[in-house]
Design a protein that fits this description.
169 residues, mainly alpha, two-stranded antiparallel sheet, two-stranded antiparallel ribbon, 6 helices, 4 strands, 8% strand
Length: 169
């Protein structure tokens, strides 16, 4: 869904573009990405940035189809959602889809379409080297690192569940 305005309402709640550029709602298996309010570089000057966010959210849909999203939510609930263990489980889940996003971006760069290697390099630097650390998504270095793992295009590289705690901090 690409709702008008700067927020999206779903069965999972309402989120504004100030809170998140996009989100996946597993209740209705839908990605919500309101365009209004996003930086121009995501929607006009550098559309690969926007596609990378979409690919991240689609990764959550893939997790939903395979059952890993439900498993991650169940484990987080058992550990206590806002405990250090619960937050680490959330980061493992989020960083795995960062890797999926990198895989998607790699698959469309230099494939005859409009995106080339300089675009992928710009997206990596712009979107993932911002210096924003998050208790639920990881350090900026790990967010970028898992995305870069994805551009190596090896699904086994996306196994955040077997990574060390430092790799998902």
């Amino acid at each position: 869904m690409v709702p008008a305005g700067t927020s999206a309402t779903s069965p999972c709640g309402t989120v504004s573009t100030e809170e998140a550029a996009a989100f996946y709602c597993s209740s209705n298996e839908t990605i919500y990405m309101p365009i209004a309010g996003l930086p121009e570089s995501w929607t006009e000057g550098r559309p690969l940035n926007y596609l990378s966010v979409f690919a991240h959210e689609f990764g959550h849909h893939v997790q939903g189809l395979t059952g890993t999203l439900t498993e991650a939510h169940d484990r987080r609930r058992e550990a206590g959602g806002d405990t250090p263990a619960g937050l680490e489980l959330t980061r493992r889940n989020e960083l795995r889809v960062q890797c999926f996003a990198g895989m998607f971006i790699e698959s469309i760069v230099d494939s005859g379409g409009p995106f080339t290697r300089p675009d992928i390099d710009h997206t990596r630097r712009f979107e993932y080297s911002s210096g924003n650390d998050s208790p639920t998504h990881g350090t900026a270095a790990n967010i970028e690192g898992w995305w870069v793992r994805g551009i190596r295009n090896q699904i086994a590289d996306c196994n955040s569940w077997s990574a060390s705690s430092a790799e998902v901090a």
